[in-house]
Design goal:
Layout lengths: L4 H18 L1 E3 L4 E4 L22 E2 L7 E2 L2 H21 L6 H19 L18 H5 L2 H18 L6 H14 L1 E4 L5 E6 L7 E2 L5 E6 L2 E6 L13 E2 L8 H12 L41 E2 L6 E2 L1 H13 L10 H14 L5 H13 L5 H14 L12 H15 L24
Parallel strand pairs: 7-10
Antiparallel strand pairs: 1-9, 2-6, 3-4, 5-6, 8-9, 11-12
Helix pairs in contact: 2-3, 3-5, 9-10, 11-12
This protein binds zinc ion (4 copies).
Length: 434
């Protein structure tokens, strides 16, 4: 017997309330930091924007950080006091965002050493228990060069309060591996945080949970039926942009977090649909499975038996490796159009490089709307069978929002040598700001 509407309503209500029971909220980050260029627009304590039509209150001590209200200023003072003093001394040089962030972590680590965990900062886990990949970082010349630069700048900022180089290296490595960036609901990156609770969550290219921000507060929400966001054995987040091929995802994870991803999606041969190439027989629509890193060889089509020659497979693989992962918003549409026609010539329509080029072109020509984003995302995600996981009552709009959120997480963990390399304009405060 089919359930009555009332039964369905009750069931939906139960499902929704059980989702609420399975979310996890983190509201005690170890350290947070607003990016220097956004300090005028977001409260340095709660990390929310100024209320409509109002200006943020400027700290009279350093004339730099801003707060949305007196309460936020009062709550931030314990953490800001030593920073405020150092900012005054280093005037007119403004330290890099990363230096301010690491310096706050150093303050907390020093305090914990002297006083123990008086305030329950380490309730979720101990700072000392964080993974640091020190050996990998030592063997990474680019990262070490960045460390030396940050060490010099942090020493100049902290002066006699600077800790030993070994102790600072410990903070630097732990922060590099465990921090995440903070975004507004519109997806703008405004700062970074180290949250000991969130740092416990592992990565999967097929995440079971998504992250939603409210200022520095983070809500971990299940994406999959029955998953409890508090259970580390079933709750996985994504550290990277999951709308990419296995080769690209694993390369990114290895460069930034020094591990080889062994998630269910990376082990799924079906995932190679995202790097499939076209059958040489122009009347055949069968995808030929390969990937960027596979040894090139001729492939016989399972459907029409046509053999696609090794040289053609190699050409397609090289094209995939050559295509840029990001597009400059000022790039002329003609350039993308040209790349897209090359890609469509060799790559199968399920290929993620084709989808991304199409998205980039639509973005450049202003054709990218909520509807087209939704259909593009669905195209990509149905290719690697994520959709079967969605709760059945998810409407189109919820689905679209969720997918956008996953994309957003992708840009969430980017505190690393490539994405956080600071510019010198970041360093010097402009006269007008002082
Ligand atoms: Zn505030
Ligand atoms: Zn101040
Ligand atoms: Zn993976
Ligand atoms: Zn074929």
């Amino acid at each position: 017997m089919a359930p009555s509407t009332d039964d369905k309503f009750i069931k939906d209500k139960q499902e929704i309330s059980s989702i609420h029971a399975r979310i996890k909220i983190f509201e005690h980050p170890f350290v947070t930091q607003i990016n220097n260029p956004q300090v005028e627009s977001f409260c340095s304590h709660c990390m929310r924007a100024a209320p409509q039509g109002q200006k943020l209150l400027k700290c009279a001590g350093c004339n730099f950080v801003r707060y949305c209200c007196k309460d936020c200023q009062r709550l931030a003072w314990k953490v800001h006091r030593p920073e405020c003093r150092r900012l005054k001394t280093s005037f007119p040089n403004l330290p890099l965002t990363e230096v301010l962030f690491l310096s706050k972590i150093v303050d907390k680590v020093v305090f914990l050493k002297l006083n123990g965990d008086k305030f329950g900062w380490e309730k979720e886990r101990k700072f000392s228990s964080l993974v640091d990949h020190k050996d990998d970082i030592r063997n990474d010349p680019e990262k070490m060069e960045h460390f030396e630069k940050i060490y010099t700048k942090t020493s100049a900022f902290r002066k006699e309060e600077m800790v030993s180089k070994d102790d600072f290296f410990d903070v630097f490595c732990k922060a590099a591996i465990n921090s995440h960036s903070i975004h507004t609901n519109a997806g703008t990156e405004i700062g970074m945080a180290l949250d000991l609770g969130i740092s416990k969550y592992n990565h999967s290219c097929r995440p079971t949970c998504t992250i939603v921000f409210d200022g520095y507060r983070v809500c971990l929400r299940p994406l999959v039926i029955g998953v409890n966001a508090s259970d580390l054995n079933e709750a996985f987040i994504s550290y990277i942009d999951v709308g990419r091929s296995k080769y690209m995802r694993r390369k990114d994870l290895k460069t930034r977090w020094y591990f080889d991803c062994m998630c269910t999606r990376c082990a799924d041969p079906e995932d190679d649909l995202l790097t499939a190439i076209k059958c040489s027989n122009s009347c055949c629509d069968e995808p030929l499975m390969t990937s960027e890193a596979e040894e090139p060889c001729s492939i016989a089509c399972q459907k029409c038996k046509t053999v696609t020659e090794e040289a053609k497979v190699k050409e397609a693989q090289e094209l995939m490796k050559f295509l840029p992962t990001r597009f400059d918003p000022n790039c002329p549409a003609e350039v993308i159009k040209d790349l897209l026609s090359k890609a469509e010539n060799l790559l199968h329509p399920t290929n993620v490089y084709v989808s991304r080029l199409r998205t980039a072109l639509m973005q450049l020509t202003g054709q990218l709307t909520v509807e087209t984003i939704s259909s593009m995302h669905k195209e990509i995600y149905s290719n690697y069978k994520m959709l079967e996981f969605w709760r059945p009552y998810y409407t189109e709009i919820k689905l679209c929002r969720t997918l956008i959120l996953i994309f957003r997480i992708a840009i969430c963990r980017k505190f690393d040598k490539n994405n956080r390399s600071p510019s010198d304009s970041d360093y010097k405060m402009s006269e007008s700001e002082l």
